[in-house]
Amino acid sequence: MTRNNGRNTDGTFSEGNPGRPKGARHRTTRAVEELLQGEAEGLTRKAVDLALEGDTTALRLCLERIAPPRKDTPVSFDLPSMQSASEAADAAQAVLQAVSDGELTPLEATSVMGLVESYRRTLETSELEKRIEALEDRK
Question: I want to staple 51 with a disulfide (CB 3.0 to 4.6 A). Which of 46, 59, 79, 108 is the partner?
Fold first, then answer.
């Protein structure tokens, strides 16, 4: 059932209403691309020259392109090996201890805990698969 605006009751578009085609670009984006066509090398050289002359804005732009700010950083701390789903509690304890010791920030620990949980589920699934196979072999 659709409403008058072309959307289903769950908010998704109904069949036959594709919206903007894939790969379509906004009119302004196309105009800027046409304006800059073939000028990338010259503009880059000018930005570098200005940066070398001390223009702080040009310097910032150049540095952001050369070494963009990292969105994620590697973390290093002792994490016990997990060979079974039950060992995930030891790994979780190690993550909490690393936060307590200041080796990890709470945000980093949240990310690591997500990995630990994901791996625990994988191990649990593998263990269940082995148990099912063993039960089926008994029959």
Answer: 59
3 state SS for 37-104: CCCHHHHHHHHHHHHHCCCHHHHHHHHHHHCCCCCCCCCCCCCCCCCCHHHHHHHHHHHHHHHHCCCC
pTM confidence score: 0.50
Burial (0-12, 13-18, 19+ Cβ within 10 Å), 42: exposed
What is the tens place of the pLDDT at every residue in 47-84? 899 999 999 998 998 888 888 777 778 888 889 999 98
Contacts of 55 by beta carbon, 8 Å cutoff, 6+ apart: none
